[in-house]
Amino acid sequence: MKVKGVILCxxxxxxxxxxxxYFQKSMIPIGKRQKPLLEYIVRLFKYHGxxxxxxxxxxxxxxxVNYFDDGGRFGLxxxxxxxxxxxxxxxxxxxxAYDKKFIGEDDRIIIYYGDIISxxxxxxxxxxxESHDASATIALSKNFTIKVGLAELGPDGKIIGFIEKPKLxxxxxxxxxxxEGRELKSxxxxxxxxxxxxxxxxxxxxxxxxGKPVFGYLTEAFWYDVGSAEAYEKLDFNLVEEKLSxxx
Length: 248
What we know:
Layout: E1 2-9, E2 29-30, E3 35-36, H1 37-47, E4 52-57, H2 61-68, E5 77-82, H3 89-99, E6 107-113, E7 116-118, H4 122-131, E8 136-141, E9 150-153, E10 159-163, E11 172-180, H5 184-188, H6 199-209, E12 214-218, E13 223-225, H7 229-234, H8 237-244
Helix pairs in contact: 3-6
């Protein structure tokens, strides 16, 4: 079975405006070296031996294609699938790649959201997925900090406690997952052209409803959602260097 990497990097990045008026959101510069976010993702795949990548592109796709080309200078094979208005949302983008035969039912697909930076061990994730004979495996973390304060209320509405930006003691999706290609056909059945289909909201719950084995892979790896202007401003470039310099 062939492992293929799929990176979702087509969105307009509205939460990152005004930066994304000029940059594709996955091409924003990060770290001390000011390399594009997407380069860290691409090099993470290469570091873990996944060398066949498909980038799902749309908004300002020229920036991505001009920078990465066919992937040769990174030691990779990179292909591109342009967004189609009939296939909306992250799930729709995946179905578009399936319909255009860039991914197939014989593939094992590792999907990575293009606004996430992480040092997750992709090979260990794949091994976990395979050992559980899973249809899908979601990389999960318990290290998510809620971005607002949490209040504890008494029965009369009086605040009796308050925690500013606590850590959530529940597993949250990191935006990285593995999907068996054999499940693309069943996901295609719930795809309605022109209607948005989200991977985590629609596709994964559909597999669960069918009784498919969907597993969670708990990780302590560094990961950070760079998907908003506030998050980008708060990203510690020293931490990026510490966690990811080995893949560059």
